[in-house]
Amino acid sequence: MRQYLRRFYARRANVYGLILVLGFILVAVAAPVLSPLDEKDPGPYKQIGRFTDMEPHPPSRKSPLGTLPGQLDIYHSIVWGTHNAIQFGLLVTLTAFLFGVVYGAFSGYLGGAANNFLIRLADVFLVIPVIVATVMIRQLIGYVINLAGGVYYFDMQLRQMVADFTNVPSSYVVLLTRIDPLLISLVLLTWMPYARVTNTLVVTLRQSEFIQASRALGGGSFWVVFRHLIPNCISPTLVLAARDVGSAVIMQATFTFIGLAGNSPWGALLSFGRDWIIAPGGNILKYWWLFLPPTIVVILFGVAWNMLGDGINDLLDPRI
Amino acid sequence: MPPLLKFLIHRLLFAAVSLILITFVLYAGSNIMPPEARAALYMSNSKRELTEEQRQRLIDVIIQSHRLEDPLVVQYVSWLGTLTSGSWGYSPVLHENVLPSLLRRTPVTLELALYSLLLMVPLGFSSGLIAGWWPHRTFDKFFRSLAYVATSTPPFILSIIMLSVFYVSLGWFLPGRLDTLTSIEVSRDPFVQYTGMLTVDSLLNGRPDIFLTYLRHLTMPIFTLSLFHWATLGRVTRVTVMAEKSKAYLMAARARGVSSRKLLWHHAARAILAPSLTTIGLAAANIVTGIFVVEIIFDLNGVSEVIVLAMRDIPDAAATMGFAVYSVVMVLGLMVGIDLLQAFLDPRVREEVMRA
Question: In this predicted complex, what is the ipTM?
């Protein structure tokens, strides 16, 4: 174990990545302490002045990172955006990871024509563009909410998916409105690499002696797959998983910024301040606090998880 | 049968099967609702003010005439039939049929994708070659740090930076497709739209001024699209060159006294080009599927405009479905094209695929 860790520590970027990721997780967990929620209106956006004041104010003691037009605190949104990003990234990646690994392992265990078919089926998902999947899912959720007597749309002011009901909906429907359509579509479109990688390993492993021994001792297929095959092939997929956390969150911020789906406060910050930066007459240097904090956080988040992925690669890859 | 033709048929078959699978999943997804709810989508807005009884009768008629109560597979097959005959349905949001409105917006998207590729492939390939051939020199260090910045900046943030610097501050480049005056001029009579691609049309019409104006609008999106893939291609090429450098045939040539520069451009580059087509193909597919970000931020009315409009007010099933099928067909076509090109250039790939 120690020599593995030494390989990890040998590269400075790995350590930085680990520290950054831990820092993000810490901020996400400590969000209620770092920036308490507004009791009247809990959420990632907090009003700290008159909402009619449309001029963004620079950082002050009251708002450490300045305010958006409409006096929303940027610091508060950055902190709760981290909370949201960690939640979203881990949820997407873990779901895709679990599904992909189990799919790949079972398909490899079956082997032969069945395996060939299942892997081809996974390849088919590679062709679907993320925008298509997101919009289709969004429409599906919209239909269900329509049937329950509500309207489902992306609110350009709040920068998130909103469902309005005329009646009181059942709790299942309420749960559905809480789910980001992007979450489902990203899970649907990111599980394939896990399946492929696991599959290749399982196919090479499944004729090995310890698997045959387990089967000869009466181990059923579930036992063999979950107890022996998956634990032995899981490590290479961890590298993929670490990188996916970052890219899922960047995708969410992108979708929020262009206003199609996704509930990322980071992306929303940029789109709220957009007119003061990139519209005619805007000035990125004068209103730097509208641009810099969310940008730095989004880029750092992506870089951190990438570095961690490289680090895990160093940790596991014996060739170096 | 010649192997290349066999290969083509093999790839086309796979693409067709994928297409059928995907469209079936998409179609089934949009058909989860009961027939009554789907029939309501066929009614135009004015007819929603009917009495309950009339409305019920109308819905029954629609269900009958569109056969909405048939089994899913039957409905799917008949839907495929209408799709191939070119009627992709009427979109209430776009106020026109879906297929023509998609086709009308295709040239812009095509231009973006094409020019990004034309910019990214030669630059990425050559900078990767130089960086990998003389590693740890100044150029290599410069390339690696730039590539690192390029891959870690999300496209939408790059677009914000570009807009604020080159549009708001310097005023060199502009968002949007064309300014109002020029777009009127382009749509009017003496100007003939041969291809719909304005870069080509303006030159064919002998109007270099329009060409230059249009270029001012295209520069930022193309740069944004190609930067990330330039870095990825460069990195992959760099690693490949570094591995290729120690191969025996290069050492033999070096021993014969071939200069290092000639060795790189005449010997190594040629050997690496075919394998890096895989990366180029992946980049091309990524450019096409990720083009919507740039189209929306820079306000270009490309194909993605259909989906944005379809999402704005009431959900528009025909437009959404049409866009989905259209983009899947585009990506599949692109993949077959790249595979074919690769097989054409590299006989090793051909044999590998045939064996699988």
Answer: 0.85
